[in-house]
Write a structure and sequence with these properties.
Blueprint lengths: L33 E6 L4 H18 L2 E6 L5 H10 L6 E5 L1 H9 L7 H9 L6 H6 L1 E2 L2 E2 L2 E13 H7 L7 H11 L16 H13 L16 H17 L7 H9 L5 E5 L3 H4 L19 H4 L1 E4 L11 E10 L5 H11 L4 H5 L7 E2 L5 H6 L1 E2 L5 E2 L6 H9 L4 E2 L8 H10 L1 H10 L5 H20 L1
Parallel strand pairs: 1-2, 1-3, 9-13
Antiparallel strand pairs: 3-9, 4-5, 6-7, 6-8, 6-9, 6-10, 11-12
Helix pairs in contact: 3-17, 4-13, 7-9, 9-18, 9-19, 17-19, 18-19
Length: 455
C-alpha cells in the first residue's frame, strides 16, 4: 500500500541469458522459451533481489524472463494500455486482492493454472484463508504468496501497570484508551486524515470487527447498516476523546507512538522493523529509546484480530498474489510461479519479512530467521518474543476484507482512490456529522462511485 511501499515508477528490465533447458517437471521447456513478468515489488533493492532469483530460475530451467517493475498506483492504467495493445505479460507478481478482482472482472486471468500450481506444491501447506480470498466460483484466481497485517500496537508496560487486558475487543480497547489518556500520553493515536488511504485501512480494520461490510452479498452498498453506524461512532469517539488532536495520518500516528506519547496505535506490520530501530529515517524517539533502541519494541504488545459487539474476531490485511494471465505461455509461467513459491520463496519473503508473512506454512521457521530492517539488519526473532511472531505469522488466517468475497475488487480500488469513508469519518470527528449521517454519506458516495464503474 502507498504508506508502506512508496510508489516509484521505475521500470527495470532483465532478459536473462539463454541457457540449456533442464526442466525438472517434464514440461519440456526449450531454451527459446521466454516469458514476461511484471512485479509490483518495484523498489530498486527489491528489483535487485528478484533479478537474482530470476537468473537462478533461468539457469535451472532455460526459460528466459523479462522482469518489469510496475508501480502499484499505475497498475490499472498500465494493464488497460497493455490489453488494448495486445501486449500483456505472462505473469504478474505482488498483486493486491483488489487488482486480482479487477483482472477477473476484465476476463484477463488464467483460472486453471493457479489451482494446478497450488495442488502440486501441496494445498494443505497454504493458509486456507489466503486461498479463500483468492478464490471465486470454486476457482483459484491466483496463487497467494504473502501478506501484511493491520495491527493494534499497545504499550505492555502501561497496560500491566494499569491492570488492563490486551485491547482485542471494542470494550477493552475503549477502556484502555480512557484509562491511559493522561499525563501527556494519549490513550491512542488514530488516523483521521480525510485524504489518506491509511485512514481507510485503519477504519476498515475496526469496522470488520463489528461485522460491518461495504457491500452485501448482492453487491448493494451496506455502509449504513447498524453494525457500520456503530463502527463509525466507536472510531470517532476514540479519535475525539482519546487521540491526539488534528488530522492525524500515517506519519503522525507513528511519530506519536514512537515518541512514547501514545499508549496505543493502529498501524500495519511494516512498522515492526522501524519499531526495533532498524531504519534510520523512522526511529523510536521515546526517552527510554535513547539508551536502548529496542526498548519500545520490547515493551509493545501486538493484537491482530479485533472483535466488536456485533461481530466476530476479524482483521484487515492484504494478501498479494501471483497471477497468470489468460493468454500466457502456461507451462513456463507455471514453472516460474512454482519456483518463486518454492526454491525462491525465502528470498522473496526475505525482501521485507515484516510485511511478507508467508502464506506457505512450511516456511515459518525460515521466516523467523530472515533479517528485517533497512539500515540495520536483524531477524525479527532477535527482537520480538516467539509468541508475538507466532501470532503475526498466523494472522493471514483471520484476514477479512470489504468487497473482495463479493467480487467487488474494482469498487474497492475505486474507493481507495476517492476515499469516501475517510471523508465521512472526518466530518464525524469534527462534529459536522452524526454517526448515522456519516454512514449515510459514505453509502451515498460509494453508490455514486459504483455507478461510475458500471458506466
Amino acid at each position: 500500500m502507498p504508506h508502506q511501499m512508496p510508489a516509484v515508477l521505475a521500470v527495470a528490465l532483465l532478459a536473462a541469458a539463454s541457457l540449456t533447458a533442464c526442466g525438472d517437471d517434464g514440461g519440456g521447456s526449450q531454451a527459446a522459451d521466454e516469458i514476461t513478468v511484471w512485479t509490483e515489488e518495484n523498489l530498486e533493492d527489491r528489483m535487485t533481489v528478484q533479478n537474482q532469483i530470476v537468473a537462478d530460475f533461468t539457469k535451472k530451467t532455460g526459460i528466459k524472463v523479462k522482469l518489469v517493475g510496475v508501480a502499484e498506483d499505475q497498475f490499472s492504467q498500465v494493464i488497460t494500455t497493455a490489453a488494448a495493445a495486445d501486449d500483456l505479460p505472462d505473469v504478474i507478481g505482488a498483486l493486491p486482492l483488489a487488482s486480482i478482482r479487477e483482472l477477473e472482472a476484465n476476463d484477463l486471468l488464467d483460472t486453471e493454472t493457479p489451482g494446478r500450481i497450488v495442488d502440486k506444491l501441496g494445498r494443505s501447506g497454504f493458509s486456507a484463508r489466503a486461498l479463500e480470498l483468492d478464490s471465486s466460483g470454486g476457482k483459484l484466481l491466483a496463487v497467494p504468496s504473502d501478506g501484511w497485517a493491520q495491527l493494534i500496537l499497545y504499550r505492555k508496560d502501561l497496560f500491566q501497570k494499569a491492570g488492563l487486558e490486551p485491547p482485542d475487543t471494542y470494550e477493552a480497547l475503549e477502556a484502555a484508551a480512557k484509562k491511559l489518556n493522561t499525563g501527556g500520553v494519549a490513550g491512542i493515536t488514530l488516523a483521521v486524515a480525510p485524504k489518506d488511504s491509511f485512514t481507510a485501512q485503519s477504519f476498515e480494520h475496526v469496522a470488520l470487527a463489528n461485522g460491518c461490510q461495504l457491500v452485501d452479498n448482492s453487491g448493494n452498498v451496506a455502509l449504513n447498516a447498524p453494525q457500520c453506524v456503530k463502527a463509525f461512532d466507536f472510531y470517532a469517539k476514540l479519535a475525539k476523546d482519546y487521540s491526539v488532536k488534528g488530522k492525524q495520518d500515517v506519519d503522525s500516528t507513528r511519530a506519536t507512538y514512537f515518541a512514547g506519547r501514545a499508549a496505543m496505535t493502529i498501524w500495519s506490520s511494516f512498522i515492526l522493523d522501524e519499531l526495533a530501530g532498524l531504519r534510520n529515517d523512522a526511529k523510536p524517539s521515546c526517552p527510554e529509546c535513547k539508551g536502548d533502541p529496542e526498548w519500545l519494541a520490547k515493551n509493545t504488545g501486538v493484537v491482530t484480530a479485533l472483535k466488536g459487539p456485533d461481530g466476530t474476531p476479524a482483521q484487515y490485511g492484504e494478501i498479494v498474489s501471483w497471477a497468470v494471465i489468460r493468454d500466457a505461455a502456461k507451462e513456463p509461467a507455471a514453472q516460474f510461479v512454482s519456483y518463486m513459491m518454492n526454491e525462491g520463496y525465502d528470498r522473496w519473503i526475505g525482501m521485507a519479512p515484516e510485511g511478507k508473512f508467508p502464506t506457505r506454512t512450511g516456511f515459518a521457521d525460515k521466516w523467523n530467521k530472515l533479517p528485517a530492517g533497512v539500515d540495520t539488519k536483524k531477524p525479527l526473532a532477535e527482537v520480538y518474543p516467539a509468541e508475538v511472531l507466532d501470532t503475526l505469522r498466523k494472522s493471514p488466517d483471520t484476514f477479512a476484507r470489504w468487497g473482495i468475497p463479493q467480487g467487488q475488487g474494482k469498487l474497492i480500488g475505486a474507493t481507495m482512490g476517492e476515499l469516501p469513508v475517510p471523508r465521512a469519518l472526518s466530518g464525524l470527528v469534527d462534529g459536522s456529522l452524526t454517526p448515522q449521517a456519516a454512514a449515510d454519506q459514505a453509502k451515498k458516495d460509494v453508490e455514486t462511485i459504483k455507478r461510475g464503474i458500471r458506466g
